[in-house]
Structure to design on (412 residues):
């Protein structure tokens, strides 16, 4: 009845083999399958659940909002509260518009950049995933990569023609593109920490170099922080690097587990959106009161509790466990990690770009995935996804998972 049995392709386990489990319920760091198996979850609904599953504060906020109605189609106060919160947290954002998914945010961001600059082309980086926007499904990561068709059928050559793909972490290549086409590039869009091809860390100076080039050529710099926003810090990547983009795409965590996205940035650019400006953008359910309530609760809890130092400690603990186990076994393994995000590349050298990522040994990942799942730990069902930690992962969850990870590597 459902194509591939799933409503989003990477859930289908195609790249690890076997069939996916169905989840009956989820609480804290754990999923319970319909068969009653309990799993420590490192997928966390693919990023949003930074407080773990079914967080009490988020649930209470949604319940309270629910009593007032599920959708109004008029302005409502919770949208204003959300805008205030995002502006207070994210330096680049002077104005913000809510959407219903990250895909809508990136799609709108590139339209806005084109409308603002009057230029046609965009630059993206190989391996960066920005949702299933036609013109961005070129050398994308995530499910597109997992399925082995980085260029989707149904995207016309005309649509792809205005997308220029550059290797991530390669400033000279980017510079060459700008030098060849100084007047045509509307925007550069990137995941500042690519997290849909496994996790790739920006080389020192890369983000600043990118900022400088965009400023020089009058090109809009778009950080797609759908994954990293509110995960790396309250300011996302901008909290770790002193680099301010022109536009930011957000999603995932700011919906607290409900469908959401957002697009924000410099007022001068954002004012081009309808009804103020000529760039059309809309959404029947955008700013939905339930999604706003969930997102507000999630972000306020982050503000109040500042979990980032602890999440970083947990991330380091998992990374060191994996690296230690691989060393003992004599298997080359890279574990890029930043804060609550990490991934496994069975590779001799640190992975800096898409080509190096996909040259990693996927079979070894599949074995670790399978062993972990058989022993109660759920990693992403693909070698090209990132693992997440949440504030609900307690010391004992991490201890238990680390024991399983070490045993999984030992068993290779
Ligand atoms: C998940 C993701 C998207 C797409 O968001 P959806 O809500 O799935 O449409 C876009 N960009 C990045 C970096 C993402 O991780």
């Amino acid at each position: 009845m459902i194509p591939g049995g799933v409503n989003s392709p990477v859930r289908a386990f195609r790249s690890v083999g076997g069939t996916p489990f169905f989840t009956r319920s989820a609480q804290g760091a754990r999923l319970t399958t319909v068969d009653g198996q309990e799993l420590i979850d490192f997928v966390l609904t693919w990023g949003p659940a930074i407080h773990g599953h079914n967080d009490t504060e988020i649930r209470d906020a949604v319940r309270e909002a629910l009593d007032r109605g599920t959708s109004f189609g008029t302005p409502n106060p919770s949208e204003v509260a959300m805008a205030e919160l995002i502006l207070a947290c994210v330096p680049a954002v002077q104005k913000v518009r809510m959407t219903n998914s990250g895909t809508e945010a990136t799609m709108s961001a590139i339209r806005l950049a084109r409308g603002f600059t009057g230029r046609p082309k965009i630059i993206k980086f190989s391996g960066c995933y920005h949702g299933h926007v036609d013109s961005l499904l070129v050398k994308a990561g995530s499910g597109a990569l997992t399925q082995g068709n980085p260029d989707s059928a149904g995207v016309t050559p005309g649509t792809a023609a205005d997308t220029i793909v550059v290797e991530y972490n390669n400033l000279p290549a980017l510079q060459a593109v700008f030098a060849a086409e100084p007047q045509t590039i509307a925007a550069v869009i990137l995941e500042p920490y690519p997290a849909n091809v496994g996790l790739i860390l920006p080389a020192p100076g890369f983000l600043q170099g990118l900022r400088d080039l965009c400023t020089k050529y009058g090109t809009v710099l778009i950080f797609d922080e759908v994954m990293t926003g509110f995960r790396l810090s309250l300011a996302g990547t901008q909290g770790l690097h002193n680099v301010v983009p022109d536009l930011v795409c957000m999603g995932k965590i700011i919906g607290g587990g409900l469908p959401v996205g957002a697009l924000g940035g410099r007022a001068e650019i954002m004012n081009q959106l309808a009804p103020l400006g000529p760039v059309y953008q809309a959404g029947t359910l955008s700013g939905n009161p339930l999604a706003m309530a969930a997102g507000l609760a999630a972000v306020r809890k982050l503000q109040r509790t500042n979990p980032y130092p602890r999440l970083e400690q947990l991330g380091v603990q998992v990374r060191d466990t994996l690296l230690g186990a691989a060393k003992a076994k004599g298997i080359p393994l890279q574990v890029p990690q930043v804060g609550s995000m990490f991934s496994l590349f069975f590779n001799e050298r640190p992975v800096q770009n898409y080509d190096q990522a996909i040259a990693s040994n996927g079979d070894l990942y599949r074995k670790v995935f399978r062993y972990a799942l058989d022993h109660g730990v759920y990693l992403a069902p693909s070698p090209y996804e990132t693992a997440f930690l949440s504030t609900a992962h307690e010391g004992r969850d991490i201890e238990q998972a680390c024991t399983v990870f070490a045993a999984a590597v030992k068993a290779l």
Notes: The first strand starts at residue 23 and ends at 27. Residues 3-55+307-410 form a domain with the Aspartate Aminotransferase, domain 1 fold (CATH 3.90.1150.10). The two ends are 37 Å apart (CA to CA).
